Amino acid sequence: MAGARVIPIRSVARKQQQQQPAGSAPVRPIPSMDEVPPQDEKPDDQEQVREESAWERGLTDALAFVRKRLTGDYEVDEFGFDRELTDNVLFPPLRPLYEKWFRVETIGLHNVPAEGGALLVANHSGTLMPMDAVMTGLAVRDHHPAERHLRMLAADLVFKFPVLGALARKAGHTLACSADAERLLRNGELVGVWPEGFKGIGKPFRDRYKLQRFGRGGFVSAALRTGVPIIPCSIVGAEEIYPMIADVKALARLFGLPYFPVTPFFPHLGPLGLVPLPSKWYIEFGEPITTDQYEAGAADDPMLVFNLTDQVRETIQQTLYRLLTQRRNVFLG
Amino acid sequence: MAPNVVLVTGVSRFLGGHLAARLAANPDIERVLGVDTVPPPRDLLRRMGRMGRAEFVRADIRNPLIAKVIATAKVDTVVHASLSANPGSTGRTAMKEMNVIGTMQLLAACQKSDLVRKFVVKSTTAVYGSSPRDPAVFTESMGPKDLPSSGYAKDAVEVEGYVRGFGRRRPDVTISTLRFTNFIGPRIDTVLTRYFALPVVPTVLGYDARVQLLHSEDALAILERATLHDLPGVFNAGADGLLLLSQAIRRAGRVPLPVPSFAVQPFAQVVRGARLVDFSPEQMRFLNFGRVVDTAKLREQFGFTPRWTTQQAFDDYVRGRGLRPVIDPELVTDAERGIRGVLARLGR
User: Fold this and answer.
1) CB distance B132–A156 less than 8 Å?
2) What is the interface pTM, i.e. ipTM, of the complex?
């Protein structure tokens, strides 16, 4: 891909990483895959036995993991993020989806800093499930050299639902509010935000890749207050997985949802309708927009906030158009 | 400035009683008065008497008589530790009377007395509420998204309001408001300690609360420090770190019993009826979403770092109570060793 230029962010630690061409599809094996097998209860069906010692080590690790789980011997951070559970149980079933179903290609991952706070801002879609957010999180975890966890900011609706809310907290995500965003950024975390919110995820198919209003620019204020860079992120492919052809307002009101989607397969095919279309995905991480050059109190200047918000939005929109013109086929890429 | 005469409310319960005993053991303090409607349990009374000269005054803080006690004893420091979360046998109406009306009377008495220089109030982090729309970590400047409509949390919000009003009218008085998280420890008896002692622990299906605790000894030390030093302000008081509810249950070796949320209310009533654990609706909400507070102000401004983290405090409680795990960790370790042995033999 032509657009990915290499700019130095962390000179020493990142040198080696930048030697290799950034921008092509990552082909190296995922390191975490052969460390701990992703079993939750039964640790006996190993996937690939290469040699005896690796097999035994894997088993020992798996058993230790199960024991730690059963006796509550693990740590969660103040947001409820359970790193062990996320890496060993939540991520593994998503990998086939990432690699085989959507065949995600990342571009410009070097634009994501290896350490310190940063705010990743992306276009939102998905209708039934925020698959774009999940895949972006996996991309940063598996293919970024620092194997960072993306801490996402989610709507309060997520935390109201049973199971979903608890899972989101364990995966390290939190409520989209300035207090939580700034706290995560100050702690040096990589934070992901989808400022279009429900307007983005619930837009009809004909509006695909047309960015909606970017909230009220709260994410820019958070970045300004903490002085972290904003990384515009453009996701192509995600907007075709569940084409929304209608929105049943009455049902949405009945269930207290922001919209009630109808796709070619949902809701009339039931759970089958939840199977996403296998579109080919590209996730491009753009050049960071720095915010630490502004003086303190810049976050209280609404004009600056609006301008920065527009800059981020325009960058993502332009990148989306460029990626779309380069794409020949929705499913083949 | 060290206090001369200290009045402690709520001495019939753990925090008030032990605080009075500790203060009485301090030679710099001239006199310690403990006030409550019921006398402290015998062992506590003995401790108060043995360790020093703490005097117990059987008085109701809802009664104007308290003003006379404060005036005649020349009280200069009041520690209001009687705010209670447990309705107990008296019922919710009496609890509210005690919490809110008692505080009003006590504050009125303090306002009248020119000698009172310091007022320490034990509040709770329940004032922040507990809902899915709340930020993950509360700082002292945040308020609840939905004001608690009833129960203990509402009492605490009202009590804090009256204390603020008192502070406006008497700017010369140093006021420390301490918002405590839930207490845990081998010695203290709360709703939570009884909850985790149940062999089968009911939880809300699909929710896993983040629980921040504070060891009861740390709580005592914090109250003591606020009494002995001039530390005005509102402080969150909680231990570092947190436990997920499911994790805590596993650490205690209990068996969780997930109850779907629609069945929680009737279920809680059964549990309450059986006098196992007194679950109020806000406690159920707490079990849904949990609550975590920022304690940077406690460490930096107040100058206190809790000795136990949440995990350590919880483990100390499990050990100290001698909770016999239903799921024995030894058993799990043995099973792990067994499976590994069998598979190693098979692999050979």
Assistant:
1) yes
2) 0.89
